[in-house]
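User: Quick sanity check before I run a bigger batch. Here is a single chain. Can you write out its predicted 3D structure?
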Amino acid sequence: MSYVQILAPERIIPAVGLTLIYAAMIGFSDNYVREIADDTGLWQFHLTRSLMALMLMALVAIPLGLRLRPRNPLAVAARASLQGIAIIIYFGAIAFMPVAVAAAGLFTAPIFVLLISRLVYGEHIGPARIIAVLLGFAGVVLVLGPQALSHAGPAALLPVMAGALYALANIATRRWCADESAECLLAAFFISLGLLGAMGLAALALWPLPVAEGTDGFVTRGAVWPGADYLLWMLMHASFSAIGVGLCTRAYLMADASRISVVEYMVLPTSAFWGWIIWQEQLGLATWAGIILIILAGAVIALRAAQSPDMAGDQGLRSQ
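Assistant: Done. Predicted structure follows.
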């Protein structure tokens, strides 16, 4: 059966700008996860952050005129579930493998975006996007270091699976949820992640796991009584996440996922930059080389958009 899906014209340059702001905000806030990881756990982190973000959205919904009700609840729920499960798989993987290996697996998402866009939706993928994805992924490997690919056994397929699910969620943003508001998709994402966090806490309460001291026990630690410092740090995380992820969601509504997913690579160099500023963490030559490659990848997308400003949304499902 053949049909045509009309998408709104792409606005790539503004979408790239929103994604860069998102990367800067998330890179900053993620550097402070270590402030709470010593005493609390991942699942409580996700639940608390989601509840706070949803409360903040509820407070500003009427003054800002936010549209939180979905037009297609099934599509919104499906997208939120894919995104939430991808993040949970990624964080679950870091419980038993190096963070660099897990991060490299998750950052295969842009590659999956290209494959799905071409094989499932029949979209033409030009050489510029392929080059950008390859440059960006090479940059990711350099930033993460040699350990990102060494000792990556069969278990490394888990974060790669997370990358595939995250890619599907990114594609779904514009393909399935083009008529939804960014704030509606953002609220659904936090609901999904909050529910998964609550499920993790419940599972650890029923079947406790050994908990290592400090940050090593972040993934397996169950519920703990939150202190004032924890709540203040979580309020910062919730605020930055609500704004940053909201901007990124808006970007995926404005432009094709295969372009914006490349710019999301910028989360790594911005995290490294803020680590340098906040914690005086030194960046090696390979890290700087990786940052340059990631910036080049984003520049390829932006320059290609500037050369073809009328790249529009008559692309889509040409035949199924």
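Residues 267 and 303 are 20 Å apart (CA to CA).

User: Great, the batch can go ahead then.
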